[in-house]
Write a structure and sequence with these properties.
The protein is an alpha/beta fold and 192 residues long. 45% of the residues lie in helices and 16% in strands.
Length: 192
């Protein structure tokens, strides 16, 4: 009856906290495991439910544990938080994940395939680049407005307006050559 049926893992960068319980919910194992040891430790365990928060690297570890024959349950962090008792420690977090996983109606997240994650990564990178493009455009508009050059909203309008602004700009607004950048000569090296 001491066989672990549910293993909760608090994911981290280098050291993971494990909390295993038997069918009655009694703690049978609490331990810290380094990243390099985790797969070896989980391969030695009989198939069980492995619960983790749905956070960074959870889908990777979920795929690895499924290959080892375990069932995986990824729980959104907002559903785990109410089950964490005491101060926020790795041990308390792992125990809270285990408590949440044992609830019958606890929502979970499906483990994504590598292909699904690749598509999501493309979308996230595109979203980041679009946001950065907007930020750069707004900053350019603000800087040019300080010189009385106002360019309406829109990226196409900005490109056209920026080219026209550079053509019409007085010499003091044109880009400076590197030898004229006095601030570079005065810049102090950053201490190591």
């Amino acid at each position: 009856m001491n066989e672990i049926t549910t293993m909760a893992i608090d994911l981290a960068k280098n050291v993971f906290q494990l909390h295993g319980v038997d069918a009655r919910g009694v703690c049978q194992q609490r331990r810290r495991v380094r990243r390099a040891q985790l797969l070896r430790v989980m391969a030695q365990m009989p198939p069980c439910l492995v619960a983790m928060e749905a956070c960074a690297s959870a889908h990777y570890w979920g795929r690895e544990f499924i290959e080892l024959g375990h069932r995986v349950k990824l729980i959104p962090p907002q559903y785990v938080k109410p089950f964490v008792r005491g101060n926020k420690t790795d041990g308390n977090d792992a125990e809270g994940i285990c408590e949440a996983a044992l609830r019958p109606r606890m929502p979970s997240v499906a483990v994504k395939t590598q292909e699904q994650q690749a598509v999501l990564a493309e979308h996230r990178i595109r979203q980041l680049l679009e946001g950065q493009r907007k930020q750069l455009g707004n900053q350019l508009r603000g800087l040019l407005a300080e010189f009385g050059i106002v360019i309406p909203l829109g990226s196409a309008v900005l490109s056209k307006g920026l080219a026209e602004a550079i053509e019409r700009a007085p010499a003091r607004l044109r880009p400076r050559s590197p030898d004229r950048c006095a601030w570079r000569a005065r810049a102090r090296p950053i201490p190591a």
